[in-house]
Protein 1
Amino acid sequence: MLAKIVINADNKKGKISKNIYGHFAEHLGRCIYGGFWVGKDSEIPNIDGIRKDVVEALKKIKIPVLRWPGGCFADEYHWKDGIGPYESRPKMVNVHWGGVIENNHFGTHEFFELCDLLNAEPYICGNVGSGTVQEMREWIEYMTFDGESPMASLRASNGRKEPWKLKYFGVGNESWGCGGNMRPEYYVDVYRRYSTYVRNFGSNRIFKIACGPNTNDYNWTEVLMREAGKFMDGLSLHYYTVPGTWERKGTATNFDEEEWFITMKKALYMDELITKHSTIMDKYDSEKSVALVVDEWGTWYDVEPGTNPGFLYQQNTMRDALVAGIHFNIFNKHCDRVKMANIAQTVNVLQAVILTDGPQMVLTPTYHVFDMYKVHQDAELLDFNIDTPEYMVDSEESIPQVTATVSTDDSGKIHISLCNLSPKESITVECELRGANVNKVTGTILTADEMNAHNTFDNPNKVVPKEFDEIKITENKMVITMPKMAIVGVKACI
Ligand code: AHR
């Protein structure tokens, strides 16, 4: 099998926003409680209640932005319940996610501290579904007002005199579903109203993100862009890779090749979604000043046996690693419109990059893909053309066997990321570099022998990146021999 890639090294296509490698943490299952937050009195090493091991692991992959507090939870969340002394914070029922008691110990101050520790931009989603305009306006004032004001004084009385910098703010989550079951014609006016009061206090400038479509609801995008395009900086898009149906999604670790193929195919569908939503956006915004923000993406399977169905806890295999690689290649390709994407979710929920169990922590294959792709953060996408064989299970349907990203960084190095989607065929990838000669290359690979290979607390290093040297250089060509189901990162010095 042979794939050919022609790279035009002097044709830069635009900057790949680092925020494409963003994250999402919701008050759902053990994402916040147990995942990020253990409380100050925990024996698990922590900084003011925030897990040290998780922070260190996430710093390594340079997570640029973190979305919080939901998800569906955001439209039930009343921020004033999450400030002040812990003992006086009211409890609530987390109705969406397992009906468990939320004690509100992780609130606004704790979130900003977490973002500080991670060196990540905070992205807050406001409550439109069950909150008032006043509540949203006051939250913005509480977080960002510099000077004398009721909310700034309240903030100071809770120990924080200085305002925080807040850039990204979402006006509702899934307002077409759990966030209020609204029609686009109704939500668009609600958005215009609520977003009016999302004020820029002092020097703080907020990037307002409107609730965008569910999957292929193109009419939602049309109405939002037509009626409110000029009032927003970003429009969200949610799409999950579900191998089966919503009722029977399929399991995370027990699947055959047909299910592997369907998963890859469904992940690749993101390309069509972005293309079609972008075409509608172009109609109203040819300058591309409104960003498409894919603030929820990832695999969604049936929960692990014996776990709370409302906690969405699932394992993560080599299949998930390739789903992540596919998504990054698609987002990077569309970097003119896609300015942010947030995997759902960072810890212990859905396509998590980290799993924890009490004091134990394990990094999933998806984590390692984030690590391998971080070289593309804020790099320039390079023009390339790929000619790849198709991968198929039966002769009915096929998908490309190889997908890729090529970018160049500040120092002029070229980074090539390749995904071989076939779980049974290796492939030779011939890369021709036009406009540059390769001097030296280094490579990294993530691969496995079985489709469902995954890391566990007992065996945390089953799927980890390794050095890779199956790369031959001849003047302006690199010939890369990739094993089956693999992700390869090549750094080329020119
Ligand atoms: O990520 C889990 C849930 O999926 C989010 O809360 C919601 O926005 C989406 O439906």
Protein 2
Amino acid sequence: MPERQPTLDIVTPFWNEAASAEGFARLLLELETEVSRRFGFATRKILIDDGSVDDSAARFAEALGGEWEIVRLSRNFGKEVAVLAGLDRTCGDMVLIMDADLQHSLEVSLKLIGELVENPDVDVVYARTNREGASWKRSQSAKLFYSLINSSQRFDIPENAGDFRVMRGTVARALTKLRDKRRFNKGLYAWAGFRHKAVTYTPGQRVSGTSKWSRLNLLAFSMEGFASFSVLPLRILSLSGLAVALAGGIYGLKVFFEVFFYGIAVPGYPSLLVAIVVLGGFNLALLGLIGEYVWVALSESKDRPVYIVRDIVSGAGEQKPDA
Ligand code: UDP
Ligand code: MG
């Protein structure tokens, strides 16, 4: 029996990336050629149009060659969900996830694939950014986030690792079984397990436009990560609630003794005000946090699909000559 040619699926979500369509198609073409030359893999490209409002999809369709598919979602669902939509369409022996904005280079992609091919023991090779360019504040807050979220579970979410990774088909299939609607991919990759290996890289500059992550977006995303992957904040809050109540009790005792045994008139309102404000603020924060968890629980309990596909365009033509 002739040996079947192994296949690599490339999954790329895009949202309003018309400006990078041509460059990305060229990168994919080179990648396809190299992957076939070095590792003997056949490549399928699966792009997910995450509700673009510009002509991205048409531009990509025009620029792509070889075997490709563009899954157009019915609206913008967010990158995390778009990645799932792509994984759902994969069937290859290996799956590579990369961005369309040319921040993920040909060289690093090939390095990831090479590492996976050479290490039969490893199931996932992910690209880890070195945070050289990041501000101190940003990298410290990331550190804090990961140490907090990792302190209360059996698996570790690695720092500085994103969706840029290559995995075996078995891992991709396992990931598609995780149908969380409010998705936090880093957590899901870690939850799914398997053996991971990191390759450190420096992401390139975005070709055009800006990152879709604002500071506020990042904060909301971290809250979501916490609410779906960690009970630590709830534990800290209930414990500190207990501590505050205990301190209040002790203070109450002190006042009791002062008044009844020593006859000291305790001035009332400053301590009252402090207690009200501190406890009030604490309560509000706690309520908000519980609300966050309830919101995640509510979204997950609705029997809705994670995303909706508008249509799928595909092509299986010849490789286009260098455009
Ligand atoms: N993206 C997407 N849906 C979104 C936001 C982003 O499909 O709602 C795509 C985007 O087009 C790009 C990739 O996800 O291909 C990474 O997005 P971005 O460059 O904004 O993120 P960053 O590189 O800053 O992490
Ligand atoms: Mg980017």
Protein 3
Amino acid sequence: MRKKIIAGNWKMNKTPAQAIELIKELKPLVADARVDVVFAVPAIDIIPAVKETAGSGIDIGAQNMFYMESGAYTGEVSPEMLTDAGVKYVIIGHSERREYFAETDETVNKKVIKAFEHNLIPIVCCGETLEQREQKIAVDWIRKQVKIAFFNVEKEDAKRAVIAYEPIWAIGTGKTATTAQAQEICSKIRECIAEIYDAQTASSIRIQYGGSVNAGNAAELFAQPDIDGGLVGGASLKADFAKIVNYNK
Ligand code: PEP
């Protein structure tokens, strides 16, 4: 049985002092969660966030990392820096990184491989634009994203990965995919993993839905057989996040 995982993607929000304040507010509210809880915070907030969440059961995630070990890559953060700071998860290939920072399926693949080399668990993002959905090419597009992201990734690593299905048209727009739409794509992603590896890997991997998840729609989305939790943007910055985390209580 897969344990659900609900991750907050704080994006470029919260200074270190504000991060501590938000964690202090949320920590008691998610203390008895029946799901894995992750706060994916800005790089500058990682160290205070790890300190503030110690012993709470909350894991800290990064929102990105580079695929090289170290060197002349001004502005980048390495996987070793993340593990040394106490990070467990790293979001890879968020659509905002693809759109504003030229992230490609190929760089996503390099980062996924590198994350596993350092024992970090990647939350690999995929998702279609509204245009692609209207053209009925969403499934093909997402299958391509997933196949490239997992190219040369070992089966035992893939089993521990998290995939976040995030339709771009639903991110930060208040437009959530219908439960049926989200379930359909998540099941196609699982099928794709079964084709790449096998049925056992497909049934181990966790697949989140992301895109305007809120306290009102979380329970229905997460009750779907192939949706193993959510990647939550806007609603992760307020107390409402605790309601999402506690959707099954
Ligand atoms: C996200 O950024 O991953 C996201 C899903 O954002 P939102 O919940 O705000 O749509």
Protein 4
Amino acid sequence: MKISFFSTQPYDKHFFSTYNDSFGFQLEFFETQLNAQTVSLVENADAVCVFVNDRVDAAVIEQLAARNVRIIALRCAGFNNVDLEAARINNIHVCRVPAYSPEAVAEHTAAMVLTLNRKTHKAYNRVREQNFSLNGLLGFDLHGKTVGVIGTGNIGASFCRIMKGFGCRVIAFDVIANREVEASGVEYLPVIEVLQQSDIVSLHCPLNDQTKHIINSSTLAMMKKGAMLINTSRGGLIDTPAVIAALKKGQLGYLGIDVYEQEEKLFFRDLSADIIEDDTIQRLMSFPNVLVTAHQAFFTSEALTQIALVTLQNIQELATKSNLSSKAALLV
Ligand code: NAD
């Protein structure tokens, strides 16, 4: 059984090759993203393994079906980049890794809150240049602040636990309340109230038709002046030009993003010697109160281990037509 991997980095090859020993699949790694231009690279593969920025639309799926690919294995939790209906029509199974390490993403979210607040990134550079002044590094106590969490699934629930540990009041909105989260003292409120009451808003819902640009000029206007917004979920949750306008007015006090709507042309690459044509990301990065990380929230060795093991197990179970161990892993 052959699996063609797209968008691979050295760490993908390392973790998948290590854990493939007990599965014995033939693995082929491509650095390029999967899209309509690159799908022709797939030859004699039974499965393709894709990541967050591979574009698995209907045209690509038809090409995969024509090449007898039977499985699309996402090595991530989100699946907004795959046309599930096209996969269904073409009899291709789609599986994912529903929860490889929610803590990895929740902890990175907390790191972004702390960095933006206490400016440790600036302090690090300052001290290295023998500048021991504290001017401009003033932060605020997290203890007693209100944190609003939108989406309390695996990652949102973990983030709620962390922020409660800091002594924050945690409020949340989700289309389905998580009873365990509620029992831990998190109050569910309508989304408008969460936005109005929070000092920090963190997004942990999936990207879909209901959540696209959930943060836009109207919802930004509902937020407390000077509040912090964190997005470690998917870039499309935020209307970026509206966020830039809110930052310019001071309506938004801090922005931390690990994801960006146009990230597929930028993230996971070293572009340090290139001219970036995307003026929006350049404008974002020019603000002193904006922190951008390049989709690294998942990036812990525990998460990469789980991603490799669960992805290979999903493919094995689908190939042998047995039931997937986790129902949530099978999308089509
Ligand atoms: P999950 O499915 O466990 O939780 C998502 C939650 O969002 C669910 O409770 C769901 O009911 C809720 N939800 C759905 N629609 C909603 C809406 N309209 N408003 C509010 N809540 C809504 O998913 P998860 O594992 O917690 O992951 C959340 C998201 O994080 C994923 O969709 C993915 O996009 C992103 N993610 C990012 C990284 C990263 O490295 N930055 C890594 C993993 C996942």
